[in-house]
TrEMBL record:
Protein's UniProt name: Alkane monooxygenase
Organism: Dactylosporangium matsuzakiense
InterPro entries in UniProt: Bact_Lucif_Oxidored, CmoO-like, Luciferase-like_dom, Luciferase-like_sf
Molecular-function annotations in GO: monooxygenase activity; oxidoreductase activity, acting on paired donors, with incorporation or reduction of molecular oxygen
Pfam families tied to this protein: Bac_luciferase
Keywords: Monooxygenase, Oxidoreductase
Residues in Luciferase-like domain copies: 9-305
Keyword Cytoplasm in record: no
Entry GO terms, CC: cytosol
Amino acid sequence: MRYSLVELAPVTPGGTKREALERALAAAEEAEQLGYHRCWFAEHHHVTGYAAQDPAPLIAAAAQRTARIRLGSGAVLLNHHSPFTVAERFLMLESLAPGRIDLGLGRATATPLIDLALQRDRTSRPADDFADQVQEIIGYLHTAFDRAHPFAAIDLTPGVDGTPEVWVLGGSGSSAGLAARLGIGYTFGGHIRPELASRALRHYRDRFTGTTFGAGAPQAMLALNIVAADDETSAHRLTWPARALRAGGRDRPIPTLRQAEAELSAAAKAQPSTIAGGVIPAQISGTPATLRAQLEPVIRAAGATEVMIQDMLTDPEARTRSRQIIAETLRSIAI
């Protein structure tokens, strides 16, 4: 099956954003070598621990350093952007790397102050118009506005041979119906709400209608936080930085394994990191011998056609080995 990566560009203690961004670009090159289908870059605003504030520059830079892997956003947060600007920007990226660009669309809030700073119009109350924004972007990308639509005369596509692949990202299942109705890909953040993963992806698949805006068949992606190592103890320990980040607050660099070990309580360290009885933990760990047995039943139950990996690893050797094991495991699963 297909396996992909979302890269957050984690900043290490004492490190710089430049170093984090360089590691993120190197991760795209490495992912291509390991057979990953996509590498997406995140959008996080005013967060000390992540250097990826805007996916577009990272996509453009990674496109110059890779040849096959698809590159995209995981996700552009539409509540902070104009649909016109997003469509124009990603059509430009499509021109830079034809046939390799994904436009992942989502929504998220930061603190009230940052949300206000990101607004262009600060006199009106924010509106939940995500569905309208997604449909407007598809209208621009596919020149698909109804004749009566006020933007029907706008055509952003001249000179662009292809179209970015559009995905809706969600963490609660509420966007599954939207993606299904539009016939585009859907990614569920199983690392956010793992207990809802199967229900959300099944909802998407059951209601999917093929359109010219997508592949014509459901593309159901399950995003999970997975780490791996050659022994179970080491693999489990690799979940600790993500746990420490949640427990100690996100406004700081990503904790090292040594920091996480010092910060976490014994109970926090011992929390399960393996899938048991269909229950998916927030962080999954495994070895070459155990990871497939954990993941395959979950993938089949959810009807996922692709798995997207997230991790909080900053140690280069541990990160490379983890992603290599995960790639080998997922490659061996036939769906």
